[in-house]
Design goal:
Layout lengths: L3 E8 L3 H12 L5 E3 L12 E4 L1 H10 L2 H4 L8 E6 L4 E6 L5 E4 H10 L6 E2 L4 E7 L4 E6 L4 E9 L6 H5 L6 E13 L9 E7 L2 E7 L4 E9 L11 H11 L5 H8 L7 E7 L2 H6 L3 E2 L2 E3 L2 H4 L8 H18 L10 H34 L2 H14 L15
Parallel strand pairs: 1-2, 1-10, 2-7, 4-12, 10-17
Antiparallel strand pairs: 3-6, 4-5, 8-9, 9-10, 11-14, 11-15, 12-13, 13-14, 16-17
Helix pairs in contact: 1-4, 1-10, 2-10, 10-11, 11-12
């Protein structure tokens, strides 16, 4: 198939990819989003917590007020130590809500011009044409595109990140099960983020609205046959067995979870030290979201950080006068992307480092646990400081 030309190509129609397209569109920059799935990935999946910094980004994207009515505002967080019979409680810092993933995706998608997203386009490779000095994208369906600009937003296994020689992701020694439980007659849970801990197992519960609850279970990873984790009922029964000693309300919540929402995942991350030195742009190619900084869920910042990423390059491009198709120049985009990486690097390094130390604290014991406690105290004396971050205006 002959090559097609596109000015601005975003790879991946997840949260960050759609948000980046929305940000560019608000600045008058047309883009096309190439998504490997045959339709928007809004059927399966659970929910995502958005902290104050993420809501600031959603405000800039112009969709926050559409999303706020879909989820209640959380007022406090509580940790319950089951074995010790103790609990700790504190007020929630800043605006925090738990959104259904489909609500967030649908809202971002609806904010885009028709036909912005092209489905069934799975990226196979990206190479630089040495004659034109433009990236050439080749897709599994046989299509190829000569692009002036490429932004990779296709997750932790990003092909665009590989092109930039970003170091591979690493594995946490832990895994995560997530789900949503719908209660037709309503639930009795307060507007709080509550976690139940016993040994190295952690269960979190967050109400989405008056009838829906998001929950997760984090526990040490035990190698086995990976295929069993593709079966939702296996995920449910294995999780119930693991949490057999937990309060009955927790077991009921998992027993009644929506089958299509159940997800098992091994937790991956890009090492903070790799983020400190990594090359995240080359010419007119860059990455954003998990493609740049996939991190564990221990601070609940993966989604919010991706929304921040979406705002910054669009703002930089507009500041450099790249606010319409005819003004997009290679030199200007290179400058905008270099600014973007410079502005984002230390933010994502600190986020990833705090997430990494927090995650290792969860699965460690003895002297290692003490060491990670001390690291958190020294490096992050304000443990909620990451929530106060403002990515700035669009």
């Amino acid at each position: 198939m002959d090559d097609d030309d596109e000015e601005m190509v975003i790879i991946g129609a997840g949260i960050c990819g759609l948000a980046t397209a929305v940000a560019l569109n608000k600045k008058g920059i047309k883009s096309v989003v190439m998504e490997k799935s045959e339709s928007l990935r809004n059927v399966t999946g659970a929910a995502i917590g958005i902290r104050q910094n993420g809501w600031r980004a959603l405000d800039q994207l112009g969709v926050a007020d559409i999303l706020r009515p879909t989820a209640i505002s959380l007022q406090r967080e509580r940790m319950v130590l089951l074995k010790e019979g103790k609990q700790q409680q504190s007020s929630m810092i800043g605006e925090t809500r738990c959104l259904r993933r489909k609500d967030l995706l649908n809202t971002l998608y609806d904010a885009l011009p028709p036909d912005t997203v092209k489905f069934g386009c799975q990226l196979k490779s990206i190479k630089l044409n040495l004659t034109t000095n433009k990236p050439v994208l080749r897709f599994i369906n046989g299509r190829s595109i000569i692009a002036k600009v490429v932004i990779g937003c296709e997750g932790g296994r990003s092909i665009v990140a590989e092109y930039l020689n970003v170091k591979p992701t690493k594995m946490f020694p832990s895994c995560n099960v997530r789900g949503v439980t719908n209660c037709p007659n309503g639930h009795s849970f307060d507007a709080e983020f509550v976690r139940f801990r016993s040994d190295n197992n952690l269960v979190g519960r967050i109400p989405i609205d008056d009838k829906s609850v998001y929950w997760f279970c984090g526990h040490p990873y035990i190698p086995g046959d990976e295929r069993i984790w593709e079966d939702s009922e296996v995920i449910r029964q294995s999780t119930l067995k693991l949490l057999s000693g937990y309060p009955q309300q927790i077991q009921d919540m998992i027993e009644n979870a929506d089958t299509e929402s159940l997800i098992f995942s091994k937790l991956r991350y890009r090492a903070p030290w790799d983020l400190l030195t990594g090359t995240f742009c080359k010419g007119t190619v860059t990455v954003a979201g998990d493609a740049m900084h996939v991190m564990g869920p221990f601070l609940g910042q993966g989604g919010s950080a991706g929304l921040e990423d979406a705002v910054v390059p669009a703002r930089n491009m507009a500041q450099l006068g790249l606010d319409s198709e005819r003004k997009i120049t290679v030199k200007g985009v290179e400058e905008a992307f270099n600014m973007y990486v410079k502005q984002r690097r230390m933010r994502v390094v600190r986020l990833s480092l705090q997430t990494y130390v927090t995650g290792m604290l969860v699965v460690s014991s003895g002297l290692k646990k003490v060491a990670f406690v001390m690291l958190l105290a020294v490096l992050f004396s304000n443990k909620n400081g990451h929530v106060d971050y403002d990515c700035g205006g669009l």
